[in-house]
Structure formats: C-alpha cells, structure tokens
C-alpha cells in the first residue's frame, strides 16, 4: 500500500521503522540531558550521567580541547543507535559549538528530521534560529521540545507565538502544560487525551499516565487543583480554536512543527516526544543524487559520507568515515564501488555506535549510520554504491569566514605540515589553500576557535608546533567559467590565486571591492562562495 502522506510505495518494515534525526538547540537548552534520557529509555545506557561528561566538556575551551583529545567520547557520540518500542532511532550529534556550523550543516544532510529543543523561559535563542535556518534550507521536518517546564517559564501561547513569528513555521501543540515552575504538574496530552503527571521524586522514572475521557472527565479534578484545571480547560479550548491541527503532510513538508512540553532532567515529556518521533518523524527519505535520486526501498545499497573523523586512535592513523545509508540492505563484507575513484571497496569492519560502545555492524538498512574505518580513501561527499555511478548531491562546502597563514615552527617541516593540513581539510575541519606565488598555506575556518583546535591537534597528532598568523586575505571564492577565460583571469591575478585541497582554483579576496572588480572586469568568470563536495 502506498503511504497516503507521501504517495510513495510502502517501505520494507526494517526501513520503515527507522528514524534518523538530530537535535538542534541553543547551548544550555538541554540537548545533552535530552539525549541522555533518549538513551536511557532506549535501553542504550543504564544510568543517567554517562553522556553528561560530554555536555560539560563543551563548556570551556580548555575542556573542549580535552574532549578533542578524548576522541573516544566525541566519536561514539557522533551517531547513536537504539531501539524504542518497534522503532530504531539513529540520533546524529550536531557539534555543540557555534563555530562548527559547516560541520553542522553537513550533519543535517544525513538526517530525516530535527528535534528543536528550546528553553521554556528563554524561547527562541540565536543559535536555535541559525540551526533552524539550516534545516529550513532542506525543508527538514522539525519536532519541537519545550524544555525546563519545571522552572518558571513563559506563557504557553507566548512561546508558541514566538516560534511562529520568529521562525515562520506553524506550531501545533501535541501536549499542553499544566501550571508552571513549582506549580508545574505535568501535561495534558492533546493527541491522545491523556493526563501525564510529573514525578518529582525520581528523575529517571516516568509516572504512569492517566487515561482521561476528554477534558470534562471528572477524574481530572482528582489530580488537578480547581484553578489550574479551569485555566487548562480554557487554554486547551483556545489552542484548539486558534492553532492548526496536526497535519502529517505539513509536518513532513517542514511547514508545521508539533510541540511537546516537558522537563528533560525530570524525564518528563520525553517518552511522549519519542512516541511522537516514532509516529510523525518521517521514515528514511528519498535522497537527492545525480543523475537520479535514490529511494530507500531500492534493493541495491547506496550510501554517502557526511563526516570524517581522523585519528580516533592516535596509535593507528585510521579515520572513520560516517556513512548514511540511502538505500538497500547492507551486510558486512559487502563489496561496494567508491564512485569518485571507481574503485571497489570491501567494507569488512563497519561499526555501529551504541552510546558509549561501538560494535561491528553485521548489517544496516537505509536510514542507518555506519562508521567505516579507512586510510583516507573516503572523503566527505563520497558516494558508495553496488556499481551504479550515482553521486549524492547537496553536500556543499562553504567559503570560510576567517583566514590565517599557517607556518611550521620548524621551516624544515613544511612537507609534514602540508600532510597534516590536508588531513584536516579532508576531515572538513578546515579549508587549506596553497597560494600560487607565496610559500606556506592559507587556512580558512568558520570560527576563531577552530584555529586553536587545529594548532593543538597538529601539535598533538603530528608532533609539529605551528603558528597561525594574520593574512591580508579575508575570504576565498571558487572560480568558475570557460577554461580560457579562467586561465586568463588567473594569469592576470596571480597574487590572489591559490588551489584548495582538492586542487580546485580559488581567488583569495581582501575586500568586497575585489569581488566587485572581478564582476566588472571579468564578466566571463564567476566567483562562488560554495562548492559541491563530490
Ligand atoms: P545543552 O546540552 O543543551 O547545553 O544543555 P544541558 O543538557 O547540558 O543542560 C543545561 C543545563 O540545564 C544543565 O544544568 C541541566 O542540568 C539543566 N537542565 C536540563 N534539562 C532541565 C530541565 O528539564 N529542568 C531544569 N530545571 N534544568 C534542566 P547545569 O547546572 O549547567 O548542569 P548540572 O549541574 O545540572 O549538570
């Protein structure tokens, strides 16, 4: 039977039960706490507190470096798989720090939905908005969790209005909070007509839900004081009148977000959200690719690399490429074709990430994320298939916003430095440009912190002290056009020209004036601030 909402063929059961998503939020809204509760209810961890370390590590720069050193933690948390009821959840971690927005963007190409966590007292914050905009570019379905309802929070209508106005997305309440702060009792489940009360005694337990026969059920009064009950009835009635009802198609189109209210730290509202992800978070979706798109139900396996993590084990220079399965049923040992190089690749040691462990993946289905250890063959944007020359599209590389020169402390070590920088470039941690005329390298990143992380990693992983120094250049643009025009342009602007880490030509700019001048003087050449990874 085709799916009524998507008008696509029904997926094989194993694929249809997969939900692959990421959590987006402003720092401190509760992403780590919510992740931990997901894992707890998904049976992936036994006790709250195990993921905590990571959330805390992000807080300060020095701790962040420590986290980078402690690759085990950050990597196993990059993608986590666990079961919840009949569903298999794949939770893909988005980097916490705002400096890594490009990485975040690419992570979001690997998921089918995003959970937006907001703080009930603060509403939509800057980083939430930024991440939301990235999701919007891909019309990614968004489910919203309004957290920290156990604290004094804003009026429910006000929160919903703010999301609607600020993010230009319709909101439909899946639950409605009863009271706020110390008076917060729980929520009325608007989709299932149930009362969910919060158990403040045990933060890892969830109180039983109470079946209710509509808002007028006399049982309500047994659990809710009269004033709060009157308020709840009035608000729910108003909400049902004023706010749009749940419409699955609109959720999948990314134009409507259902919102749940809860308190992650008290494990409250989390199961309802998880049920919601199961019920409304979409199944694995069709993947944009060239020359044709890839449907998850196809028999043949296809997948693409959206993240590469190097030096997980400093003793072995191995890298793990994270592959999102786009179609088919993968089995360990399969020989796949690496489309970019057209070479066969036996995938014999793929790993699945379960909370704090990783284990060999004997199989994986469309929607899953597997890690493939390799020695640098796999790059971000690469596609693996069973032979067909398909290339997943839509994984861009952005022009960096900050540039600096990078030099080895010891000039004799320039070759080593090149190797180290190329590795980070392949990981997607930086852009590396080799100027045509000048010696050394220009390194481009999105946020200042990345320079510090890079310097520390190059020293740690390659034993190579490096210096980052200011450069006259402020940005880089990829150069496109007919070969002759591009060559003429490059020859006349040698002091601006460089090659990126894939050997593609870039124009390094100082001021907007440079870009305007090129547009005026070289109408046959275009400068672009993104490039498709392939
Ligand atoms: P993040 O990953 O989005 O940055 O947020 P994280 O989960 O680390 O949570 C940020 C802070 O908010 C933590 O407090 C956490 O305990 C608290 N928190 C999370 N969910 C809730 C909730 O439902 N209610 C309340 N009242 N607080 C919540 P912290 O003081 O920074 O850390 P900790 O000392 O509690 O570990």
Automatic annotation (TrEMBL):
It is found in: Cytoplasm. Keywords: Cytoplasm, GTP-binding, Nucleotide-binding, Protein biosynthesis. The keyword GTP-binding applies. Residues 16-285 form the Tr-type G domain. Pfam families: EF-G_D2 (PF22042), GTP_EFTU (PF00009), RF3_C (PF16658). CDD domains: RF3. One of its GO terms (molecular function) is translation release factor activity, codon specific. One of its GO terms (cellular component) is cytosol. Its main location: cytoplasm. One of its GO terms (biological process) is regulation of translational termination. GTP binds at residues 25-32, 93-97, 147-150. HAMAP family: Rel_fac_3. Belongs to the TRAFAC class translation factor GTPase superfamily. Classic translation factor GTPase family. PrfC subfamily. Increases the formation of ribosomal termination complexes and stimulates activities of RF-1 and RF-2. It binds guanine nucleotides and has strong preference for UGA stop codons. It may interact directly with the ribosome. The stimulation of RF-1 and RF-2 is significantly reduced by GTP and GDP, but not by GMP. This is Peptide chain release factor 3. It comes from Pacificitalea manganoxidans. The lineage of its organism: Bacteria, Pseudomonadati, Pseudomonadota, Alphaproteobacteria, Rhodobacterales. The gene is prfC.
């Amino acid at each position: 039977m085709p799916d009524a909402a998507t008008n696509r063929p029904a997926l094989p059961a194993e694929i249809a039960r997969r939900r692959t998503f990421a959590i987006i939020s402003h720092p401190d809204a509760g992403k780590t706490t919510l992740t931990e509760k997901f894992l707890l209810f998904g049976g992936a961890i036994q006790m709250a507190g195990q993921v905590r370390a990571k959330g805390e590590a992000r807080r300060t720069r020095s701790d962040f470096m420590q986290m980078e050193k402690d690759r085990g933690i950050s990597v196993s948390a990059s993608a986590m798989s666990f079961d919840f009821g009949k569903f298999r959840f794949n939770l893909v971690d988005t980097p916490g720090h705002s400096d890594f927005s490009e990485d975040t963007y690419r992570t979001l190409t690997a998921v089918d939905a995003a959970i937006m966590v907001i703080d009930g007292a603060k509403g939509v914050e800057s980083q939430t908005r930024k991440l939301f905009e990235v999701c919007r570019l891909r019309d990614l379905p968004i489910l919203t969790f309004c957290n920290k309802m156990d604290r004094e929070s804003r009026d429910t209508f006000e929160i919903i209005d703010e999301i609607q106005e600020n993010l230009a997305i319709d909101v439909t309440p899946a639950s409605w909070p009863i009271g706020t702060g110390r008076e917060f009792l729980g929520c009325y489940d608007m989709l299932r007509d149930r009362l969910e009360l919060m158990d403040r005694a045990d933060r890892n337990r969830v109180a039983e839900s109470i079946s209710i026969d509509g808002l007028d059920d006399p049982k309500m009064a047994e659990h809710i004081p009269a004033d709060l009950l009157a308020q709840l009835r009035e608000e729910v009635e108003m909400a049902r009148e004023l706010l749009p009802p749940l419409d699955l198609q609109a959720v999948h189109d990314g134009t409507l977000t259902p919102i749940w209210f809860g308190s992650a730290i008290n494990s409250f509202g989390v199961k309802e959200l998880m049920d919601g992800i199961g019920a409304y978070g979409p199944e694995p979706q069709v993947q944009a690719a060239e020359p044709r798109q890839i449907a998850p139900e196809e028999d043949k396996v296809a997948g693409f690399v959206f993240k590469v993590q190097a030096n997980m084990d400093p003793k072995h220079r191995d890298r793990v490429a994270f592959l999102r399965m786009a179609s088919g049923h993968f089995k360990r040992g399969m020989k796949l074709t690496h489309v970019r190089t057209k070479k066969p690749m036996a995938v014999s040691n793929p790993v699945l990430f379960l909370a704090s462990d990783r284990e060999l993946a004997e199989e994986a289905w469309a929607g899953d994320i597997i890690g493939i250890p390799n020695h640098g063959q796999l790059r971000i944007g690469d596609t693996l298939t069973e032979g067909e020359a398909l290339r997943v599209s839509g994984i861009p590389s952005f022009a960096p916003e900050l540039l600096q020169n990078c030099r080895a402390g010891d000039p004799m070590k320039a070759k080593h430095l090149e190797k180290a920088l190329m590795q980070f470039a392949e990981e997607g941690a930086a852009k590396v440009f080799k100027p045509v005329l000048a010696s050394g390298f220009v390194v481009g990143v999105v946020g200042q912190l990345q320079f510090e992380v890079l310097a520390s990693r190059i020293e740690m992983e390659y034993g190579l002290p490096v210096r980052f120094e200011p450069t006259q250049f402020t940005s880089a643009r990829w150069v496109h056009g007919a070969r002759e025009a591009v060559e003429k342009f490059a020859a006349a602007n040698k002091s601006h020209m460089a090659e990126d880490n894939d050997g593609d030509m870039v124009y390094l700019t100082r001021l907007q004036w440079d870009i305007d001048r090129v547009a005026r003087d070289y109408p046959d050449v275009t400068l672009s601030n993104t490039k498709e990874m392939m």
